[in-house]
Design a protein that fits this description.
With about 270 residues, this protein is an alpha/beta fold. It has helices at about 30-35, 50-55, 60-65, 155-165, 180-190, 195-210, 220-225, 230, 240-250, 255-270; strands at about 1-5, 10-15, 20-25, 40-45, 80, 90-95, 100, 110-115, 120-125, 135-140, 140-145, 145, 175, 220. The structure holds zinc ion and fe (iii) ion. Zinc ion binds near residues 49, 51, 54, 117 and 140.
């Protein structure tokens, strides 16, 4: 479940009906409200990167447990995050290939180092089982039809990170940390105006937002068809994007990493 926070953040909560894992709690209050309303204990906090809108609520959540406002699913409550970033309160510092074992939540979470938005950013991939499809908690690396800004990582890193997401199973539910879909789709349509999947997704996303509903989770399959940044990593999609990138740059952009770098810079000023 995406719990809305601030103006456009989502704090993802995954639970087994009794205990909840909370991903990137930028603020505590909406999470405390959600857990109380649904009778859930705080089982674990997992963090993708150090930005305030992803970590700002850690202390408040632990305080709410200490004050008895919410129950603890474990003592102490595990707080997992990237080893390569400086985040106060982590109990587990994670690197590529590590796993987070939350037996009550099913399959272990697999840690992927996905630098780009920040240089130490990690994502959590949980393979599916009989009841649930695979899930990806990707923080600010991948958004529906977009990707994070490069604050500290390089285009090469973002390219490799998105490439590793593209290889995940197509039915993977992608839990992004912001509702940026409509503005991302506007940019994506500028690049690939004839992409029928984009046009369909744009209509569907607009209808969801008109009803005040989240456009997320998206899926890896959907992103492979519509996300210009992820599509830079796919040999079949990059020639079409190269034309748009070259037009914008005023010179030939043909290497996939150059295309991604050009599109990322363009998006920063696109209105
Ligand atoms: Zn961020
Ligand atoms: Fe963020």
């Amino acid at each position: 479940m995406p719990v809305p926070a601030f103006s456009d953040n989502y704090i993802w909560v995954a639970d087994d009906g009794a205990k909840a894992m909370v991903v990137d709690p930028g603020e505590a209050a909406p999470v405390v409200g959600y857990l109380s309303a649904n009778g859930l204990a705080l089982g674990a906090i997992v963090i993708t990167h150090y930005h305030g809108d992803h970590v700002g609520g850690i202390a408040g959540l632990l305080e709410a447990v200490a004050q008895g406002k919410i129950r603890a699913g474990a003592r102490p409550v595990p707080v997992c995050g990237p080893a390569a970033e400086n985040i106060a309160g982590l109990t587990q510092r994670l690197r590529q290939g590590d796993t987070v074992e939350l037996t009550w939540l099913g399959e272990p979470l697999h840690v992927m180092e996905v630098p780009g938005h920040t240089s130490g950013h990690i994502a959590y991939y949980q393979p599916g089982d009989a009841q649930t499809p695979p899930r990806l908690f990707c923080g600010d690396t991948l958004f529906a039809a977009g990707c994070g800004r490069l604050f500290g990582g390089t285009p090469e890193q973002m390219f490799r990170s998105l490439g590793s997401f593209a290889e995940l199973p197509k039915q993977t539910q992608v839990c992004c940390a912001h509702e940026y879909t409509l503005s991302n789709l506007r940019f994506a349509l500028e690049l690939e105006p004839g992409n029928a999947d984009l046009l369909n997704w744009n209509r569907a996303a607009q209808a969801l937002r008109d009803k005040g509903m989240p456009t997320l989770p998206t899926t890896i399959g959907q992103e492979r068809l519509t996300n210009p940044f992820l599509r830079c990593t796919l040999p079949e999609a990059s020639p079409g994007l190269a034309a748009s990138a070259s037009r914008h740059a005023g010179r030939a952009r043909s290497r996939p990493v150059e295309i991604l770098a050009t599109l990322r810079e363009w998006k920063n000023t696109f209105r």
